[in-house]
């Protein structure tokens, strides 16, 4: 039975280096290009064929726009709409990466921790930049929970600091772990189906079909969770502790 981690291995198609930095082209890079092309093509085609009675493609694009807009308004308020292009690009890229990764022979970009970590660092860095631009030094108030008595500050501030630093880590690991685990399970079930032959191989194959359907749902859910937490972190930067409950609800 093939090693279930084999599909996650990357082998360079073209060796490239820029100022000592490895920028070689491999399957993950190609898949990111494919995702960008599909997302861009979908939105461009939907926008270019706008009609009073929307086509199926236009209806899909409008549904996605309204969904993302509602997510931003619920977590960040109207101020957050200025980040709509960033939030929409993030959600659609992760969603399409997750879904395309379910196609046999393709590659799940979000199963690479370096990819999810890069997204998480960009998101959290942006929230810090927004917070300091909007509030200045007062933004450091995120380290002081509302209503904390003065004598508890030496204890609570380090805890809050650790909590803040854990945000990008949890954001990156959650997406990476969920996408990797699902594909490993599918790989194991496929291996068992092949090893079992016609006699008992049908049982793991049936589980594989069920898992594929579940993975489609997980692809949507993980894209949603990553994006809504991005909105929560940016919302906290706007309103400091005004939206703490959203993250707990999302978990």
Explain the layout of strands and helices.
Blueprint: E1 17-18, E2 21-22, H1 27-48, H2 56-76, H3 84-100, H4 113-135, H5 153-200, H6 202-239, H7 244-250
Antiparallel strand pairs: 1-2
Describe the model.
By secondary structure, the protein is mainly α. It is built from 7 helices and 2 strands; from the N terminus they run E-E-H-H-H-H-H-H-H. The chain has helices spanning about 25-50, 55-75, 85-100, 115-135, 155-200, 200-240, 245-250, and strands at about 15-20, 20. The chain has a two-stranded antiparallel ribbon with strand order 1-2. Strand 1 and strand 2 form a beta hairpin. Mean pLDDT is about 80; it is low at about 240-250.
Which features characterize this protein?
two-stranded antiparallel sheet; mainly alpha; 251 residues; 2 strands; 2% strand; globular
Summarize, please:
With 251 residues, the chain is an all-alpha fold. It is built from seven helices and two strands, in the order ββααααααα.
Total number of β-strand segments? 2
Task: Report, as a whole number of angstroms, the end-to-end distance.
Answer: 36 Å
How do the strands of the widest beta sheet line up side by side?
1-2
Anisotropy-based shape: globular
Q: Roughly what percent helix?
A: over 70%
């Amino acid at each position: 039975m093939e090693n279930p981690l084999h599909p996650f291995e990357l082998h360079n198609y073209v060796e490239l280096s820029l100022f000592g930095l490895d920028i070689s082209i491999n399957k993950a890079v190609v898949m990111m290009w494919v995702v960008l092309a599909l997302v861009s093509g979908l939105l461009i085609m939907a926008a270019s064929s706008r009609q009073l009675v929307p086509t199926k493609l236009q209806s899909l694009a409008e549904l996605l726009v309204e969904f993302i807009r509602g997510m931003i308004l619920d977590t960040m308020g109207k101020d957050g709409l200025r980040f709509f292009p960033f939030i929409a690009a993030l959600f659609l890229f992760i969603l399409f990466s997750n879904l395309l990764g379910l196609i046999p022979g393709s590659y799940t970009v979000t199963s690479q921790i370096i990819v999810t970590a890069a997204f998480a660092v960009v998101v959290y860095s942006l929230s810090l930049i927004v917070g300091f631009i909007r509030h200045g030094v007062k933004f450091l108030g995120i380290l002081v929970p509302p209503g904390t008595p003065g004598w508890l500050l030496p204890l609570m501030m380090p805890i809050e600091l650790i909590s803040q630093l854990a945000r990008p880590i949890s954001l990156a690991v959650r997406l990476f772990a969920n996408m990797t685990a699902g594909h490993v399970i599918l790989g194991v079930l496929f291996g068992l189906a092949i090893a079992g032959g016609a006699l008992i191989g049908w049982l793991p194959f049936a589980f594989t079909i069920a898992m594929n359907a579940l993975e489609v749902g997980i692809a949507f859910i993980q894209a949603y969770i990553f994006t809504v937490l991005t909105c929560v972190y940016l919302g906290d930067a706007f309103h400091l502790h005004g939206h703490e409950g959203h993250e707990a609800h999302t978990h």
